[in-house]
Amino acid sequence: MDNQNYYDKKFTNCLASNKSLTAAAQIVIDAYLDNKPQGQRKKKVSSAEKDRLFWH
Questions:
Q1: What is d(CA 30, CA 43) in angstroms, rounded to the nearest whole number?
Q2: Of 2, 10, 12, 20, which residue is least crowded by CB atoms under 10 Å?
Q3: What is the rounded distance in angstroms from the CA atom of residue 44 to the CA atom of residue 34?
Q4: Which portions of the chain have biased composition (kind: Basic and acidic residues) (predicted)?
Q5: Given its phi and psi angles, is residue 53 left (phi above 0), alpha (psi -120 to 50 degrees) or beta?
Q6: 49 C-beta neighbours (distance < 10 Å), count
Q7: What pTM was computed for the model?
Q8: Span 2-49, pLDDT tens digits
Q9: CA separation for the pair 27, 19 (Å, rounded)
Q10: d(CA 52, CA 41)
């Protein structure tokens, strides 16, 4: 799990919390549409980086 990005981790955590595949996918999609991550660890995440993380 160390090499997973923000969205992969979010999806994996949802599944580990016994959420359905559909619910986990919806949570990750909502996070993407809500512009998450918004800049963790003092580094602002650009739109291009956010897209790369989501679509990789």
A1: 21
A2: 2
A3: 15
A4: 46-56
A5: alpha
A6: 13
A7: 0.70
A8: 567 889 999 999 999 999 999 999 999 999 988 777 655 567 778 888
A9: 10
A10: 18
Place 51 in a pLDDT band, splitting at 50, 70 and 90: confident
Angle at 33 (CA atoms; ends 2, 55), nearest 5 degrees: 50
CB atoms within 10 A of CB 21: 10
Which distant-in-sequence residues (6+ apart) come within 8 Å of 36 by Cβ?
Answer: 6
Residue found by looking up tokens 């909502």 in the block: 30
Q: Measured over all CA atoms, what is the biggest interatomic distance in the chain, rounded to whole angstroms?
A: 33
Which residue carries 């955590």 as its tokens? Answer: 13
The pLDDT assigned to 1 comes to: 47
Token pair 């993407």 is found at 32
Residue type, 30: D
